[in-house]
Design goal:
Blueprint: H1 4-9, H2 12-21, E1 43-47, H3 54-61, E2 91-97, H4 108-114, E3 121-131, H5 140-159, E4 165-171, H6 180-187, E5 197-201, E6 219-223, H7 228-239, E7 243-248, H8 253-262, E8 266-269, H9 277-288, E9 294-297, H10 312-335, E10 344-348, H11 352-355, H12 361-382, E11 387-393, H13 399-402, H14 406-414, H15 424-435, E12 446-449
Parallel strand pairs: 1-2, 2-3, 3-4, 4-5, 6-7, 6-9, 7-8, 9-10, 10-11, 11-12
Helix pairs in contact: 7-15, 9-10, 10-12
The structure holds nicotinamide-adenine-dinucleotide.
């Protein structure tokens, strides 16, 4: 469904009116297109003294074709925020290694770095702060200072505007070499609708990755692939090189076949809630492919009613599709050894699972359960070299959200730092980042794709 308000605000007169009335001003987001450079301009890389990530980061940026700007360049941005006074070239990204900060007094280094650069970021620019996970810090003071980084990044996400995003990446000691897939994702237009997130990276062996086709040779199953977000996930994973198995209910057979054909994959018609679904799926994968590398649990339903009016079947069907069927399928595929080392389990939660939502007790319970699944399974699967993560979409422009009442839909679109709804491709690209072989150290994460929604923030 088209966002008529955003289309109007992007016209000359629309922009003038929106600004004069102080209305939400949705920026045009820079989304990934094949062949795009990683960063559309120079990138400023800074570090607090003693940071352990600044060198590994520089070593990744150079070969990726990213130009690191010279910190001795004049640091004052033009006060009116425009180019052209010759004092400050616009930066595509501001990257800061904060791992050297060991107490609260040291947080001043953040101000010293970001203050002079605050107005020097390109539209759709990126801010990424790297820290040490508080639970891995040596002293309470260091843990306190590292935890404080969240407040900075979330506020920058709300403050810098013009389509820019800000994230905090906690890199565990020993995981310095595992950051590349995350750095690439966050710098690129693939993360256009991800902002205000905290991502954790654990130590892991990362294989050689072809960054143009990271999923070459991988088998990926996408549930609920006949339409909406699932269809886009199938498309993006296929574009990244995966052989896609697209699954949906038999009633969606025609649409499913279309998606599967379009991505050069295969279709499986199966209702995930039938008792024999996990076994049938396992047999199918064993016969056709011998394994499954990437499993995207995208199928989901809503059956909204306030709790007092909810019927048992509405409760049961939502819990069954959105959560229990995932557990049953995971169990069977893992028991049969069909998911090898390097495997990726990816769930689709929702900000409703974080914030709760009136009329969605069943849905929010199921989506919070997906988060529980990620957190409880991650340590167990780490022993087998398998990662498990989830996306939590906010307002995404799909048939699901097109059916919302108009006022609610408008509120959903505007109540985030980017003042617009996301697109299915934004969710799909985030899933593709989790799926990458380069993301071996990315596990136990729930990343919101919500434009930094105010709900549950
Ligand atoms: P959608 O309704 O357009 O697509 C869901 C697909 O899942 C459909 O093709 C449907 O046939 C399939 N499906 C449902 N039950 C199934 C079953 N028993 N077996 C197999 N397939 C089944 O929904 P969407 O908007 O594309 O959402 C995809 C996922 O993203 C869902 O899990 C949803 O809860 C989640 N999500 C969406 C939004 C949003 O704004 N659209 C926000 C947060 C989370």
């Amino acid at each position: 469904m088209s966002d008529r308000y955003a289309s109007f605000a992007h016209t000359g007169p629309g922009r003038a009116l929106v600004r004069r009335l102080g209305l939400p001003d949705p920026p045009r987001l820079r989304r990934y297109r094949p062949g795009d450079p990683l960063a559309h301009g120079p990138v400023r890389l800074g570090a607090a003294p003693g940071g352990r990530l600044v060198e590994p980061l520089a070593a990744l940026l150079h070969p990726a074709g990213v130009q690191i700007s010279d910190p001795s360049e004049p640091r004052d941005a033009s006060p009116n925020g425009r180019d052209g006074d010759g004092r400050m070239p616009r930066q595509a990204a501001l990257l800061y290694d904060a791992t050297g900060i060991t107490d609260s007094a040291g947080l001043r280094a953040l101000f010293d770095f970001f203050h002079p650069l605050a107005r020097a970021l390109h539209p759709s620019g990126r801010v990424v702060v790297f820290g040490t996970p508080p639970e891995s810090c040596g002293t309470p003071r260091e843990a306190t200072a590292q935890r404080a980084l969240e407040g900075l990044t979330r506020s920058i996400g709300k403050e810098f505007g013009r389509g820019s995003t800000a994230q905090l990446v906690y890199v565990a000691p020993g995981a310095e070499r595992a950051v590349e897939s995350t750095l690439r994702f966050l710098l690129s237009g693939r993360s256009a609708y991800v902002s205000g997130q905290v991502i954790r990276i654990s130590p892991a062996e990362v294989p050689e990755v072809d960054w143009n086709r990271p999923l070459d040779g991988r088998i990926a199953l996408v549930t609920g692939a006949a339409r909406g977000i699932g269809a886009k996930v199938a498309e993006v994973l296929a574009a990244d090189g995966a052989q896609v198995v697209a699954l949906d209910v038999p009633a969606a057979g025609d649409a499913l076949a279309e998606v599967a054909n379009a991505v050069g994959g295969t279709a499986v018609q199966l209702d995930l809630t039938t008792p024999d679904a996990p076994l049938r799926l396992a047999d199918h994968l064993a016969d056709r492919h011998g394994r499954l590398d990437v499993l995207v649990h995208n199928a989901g339903i809503t059956r909204d009613k306030t709790l007092g009016r909810m019927t048992p079947d509405r409760w049961d069907s939502v819990l069954e599709v959105n959560l229990t069927s995932q557990e049953r399928i995971n169990e069977v595929l893992l028991d049969r050894g069909l998911i090898p080392r390097g495997g990726r389990l990816i769930g689709v939660s929702s900000i409703a699972g974080i914030a709760g939502n009136r009329g969605q007790t069943n849905y929010a319970t199921s989506k919070a359960g997906v988060i529980g699944l990620v957190h409880s399974m991650a340590p167990l699967l780490a022993e087998r070299g398998i990662t498990v993560n989830a996306v939590a979409p906010g307002f995404i422009e799909t048939r699901m959200t097109a059916r919302m009442p108009m006022m609610l839909r408008e509120a959903g679109r505007r109540m985030n730092s980017l003042a617009q709804g996301g697109l299915p491709v934004d969710v799909a690209q985030t899933i593709a980042w989790f799926a990458s072989p380069g993301s071996a150290g990315v596990t136990g994460n729930v990343v919101r794709v919500c434009g930094q929604s105010l709900l549950g923030a």
